[in-house]
Amino acid sequence: MITFYFDVGSPYAYLAAERVDALLPEPPVWQPVLLGGLFKLTGRSSWALGDYRRRQAGMAEIERRARGYGLPPIVWPDPWPADYLGAMRAVTWAFRLGHGPALARQLSRDAFQRGRELSIEAHVLDAVASVGLDRGEARDAIRDPAIKAGLREATESAHALGVFGVPTLAVEGELFWGDDRLEDAAAYAVSVGRAA
After folding, report:
1. Total Cβ atoms within 10 A of residue 43
2. Each residue of 129-160: pLDDT tens digit?
3. 128 vs 31, 146, 165, CA distance in Å?
4. pTM assigned to the model
5. Which among 37, 55, 83, 136 is least surrounded, fewest beta carbons within 10 Å?
């Protein structure tokens, strides 16, 4: 089994989400986690909140990778990064309905292809509606204690397994962190599949 840990607010997770199904030998299990929660658990912070030159270099690298992967040009939300907690709760809810990957992809594309700010609930609900889910149910789910707890527990469980950032692919207990590790994860998955 391959697990794909992601947060829709991460541009690196967006780059991976656009390629993961095509690169891997089998479809992964998508697992939403809250990147901010992982940062708290590990005592880390986002590179995008630090030194201005480092931030600009990181954003330019993401834009270069998107071009190299044949993806549309990156359009950055303003501000970025922001608070994606509500968006990730909506994604967590969508997974319970069997529509998780569709909503996750839509939100990531809205953020990094259209520059839509996902901390604005109306933007999240627009994405919900665009994948055929109910806006009102999503609004309620974002506030549902069970959804909140589910996302928190998923994040804590991922951290306990050694996940400290997104995207991360877990392949038979081996972790591959970063969108530039997808090919390594795919090769490993093939090798352990052959050995089985």
Report:
1. 7
2. 999 999 999 999 999 999 999 999 999 999 99
3. 18, 19, 25
4. 0.95
5. 136
Range list of H helices, 84-144: 85-96, 100-114, 121-130, 135-143
Q: What is the pLDDT of residues 78-105, one digit of tens each?
A: 988 999 999 999 999 999 999 999 999 9
Q: Are 66 and 72 in contact (CB under 8 A)?
A: yes
* CATH topology assigned to domain 2-195: Glutaredoxin (3.40.30)
Under DSSP, the state recorded for 28 is P
CB atoms under 10 Å from CB of 119, counted, come to 17
Query: What's the per-residue H, E or C state across the chain?
Result: CEEEEECCCCHHHHHHHCCHHHHCCCCCEEEECCHHHHHHHHCCCCHHHCCHHHHHHHHHHHHHHHHHCCCCCCCCCCCCCCCCHHHHHHHHHHHHCCCHHHHHHHHHHHHHHHCCCCCCHHHHHHHHHHCCCCHHHHHHHHHCHHHHHHHHHHHHHHHHCCCCCCCEEEECCEEEECHHHHHHHHHHHHHHHHHC
